[in-house]
Specification:
By secondary structure, this protein is mainly α. The protein has one domain: DNA polymerase, domain 1, CATH 1.10.150. The chain has five helices and no strands. Helix 2 crosses helix 4. The longest helix has 18 residues. The chain is globular.
Length: about 90
């Protein structure tokens, strides 16, 4: 993923943030990112949003990292990646 982030021109801080977020999901789901299903992804994102009640900015970073990973590194065409909407903070 790091190489894909570099090739996509993402800055150092973005790389660090995305890689940090992508380490959390496999821990929660107890599965390697390449083995995670779309249903697993939905479960994880709902957990972050509803149970952890992440603030919108944190949720946006997680969504962006997951979307980048599954669009560029471990390509999956999952509707869930496009369906998630995060409300802006006031």
């Amino acid at each position: 993923m790091r190489d894909d982030l570099v090739l996509a021109g993402r800055g150092d801080e973005t790389q660090i943030s995305y890689l940090r977020e992508m380490k959390k999901m496999p821990v929660y789901l107890k599965a390697s990112p390449d083995k995670i299903t779309e249903n697993d992804l939905r479960k994880y994102m709902l957990y972050l949003k509803n149970e952890l009640e992440l603030d919108p900015n944190s949720l946006k970073v997680t969504h962006a990292a997951v979307k980048f990973f599954y669009r560029n590194t471990c390509v999956r065409e999952w509707a869930t990646l496009d369906k998630l909407k995060v409300q802006n903070q006031l």
